[in-house]
Write a structure and sequence with these properties.
Layout lengths: L4 H12 L7 E3 L2 E4 L7 H16 L4 H9 L2 E3 L8 E3 L2 E4 L11 H13 L8 H13 L12 H14 L9 H7 L1 H11 L4
Parallel strand pairs: 2-3, 3-5
Antiparallel strand pairs: 1-2, 4-5
């Protein structure tokens, strides 16, 4: 079969007619660029965050859930990476530090919403949050005390990844300060340390 100029033009036209939100694929993760520029720095930041998520040793079904979540790259700079009902959104700028589990944190929000019984109203998470806040092991203004959703995402991301730039900082501190929650996370996610 020979490639003709006409077939090349037809192929290019077909690609051009794809929906604007057509998904570019990276191994096991779908990225929606929304037609935005894919700069080398942005690609490197996103690749680093995905590699960090893939490095977490969890049950295969948890890893599959993380990989199934479409990551939409914001078109507008100066937004925050976030997650909720509509999915996971990755900030275009400023780029998150590669060693901080930012994407994992947001994927954990999706897990909380979609996989835990009663979603964001999960009684186990609410109980852990109330007890941790009452114990006051971290500064009162610490991000993990913002609400039960941030508490779950911060504690679980640190327990799974091993570290973060803000409280609870390390897996060892989670294990020490929140032993019941740590055991629950290990069971829920099948964490292998």
């Amino acid at each position: 079969m020979s490639v003709t100029r006409r077939s090349l033009i037809a192929g290019a036209a077909a690609v051009a007619l794809l929906p604007r939100a057509a998904l570019a694929q990276t191994p096991a993760f779908a990225i929606d660029w929304q037609g935005g520029e894919q700069t080398p720095a942005l690609l490197a930041a996103l690749d680093a965050q995905i590699a960090l998520v893939k490095s977490v040793r969890v049950k295969p079904e948890v890893a599959a859930f993380f990989a199934e979540q479409v990551i939409t790259v914001d078109l507008v700079p100066n937004t925050k990476t976030r997650a909720g009902q509509r999915g996971v959104f990755f900030q275009r700028s400023p780029l998150p530090p590669p060693e901080n589990p930012v994407l994992l944190h947001e994927l954990l929000h999706r897990y909380h919403l979609l996989k835990l019984p009663d979603g964001f109203a999960n009684a186990t998470v609410l109980d852990f949050y109330k007890r941790a806040k009452a114990a006051g092991d971290w500064p009162p203004q610490a991000y993990l005390y913002t609400n039960d959703k941030e508490f779950f995402a911060m504690v679980a991301s640190v327990a799974l990844c091993g570290h973060a730039a803000r409280p609870p900082y390390t897996r060892a501190l989670v294990r020490e300060k929140l032993p019941e929650m740590y055991r629950w996370i290990v069971g829920e996610f099948g964490l292998e340390t």
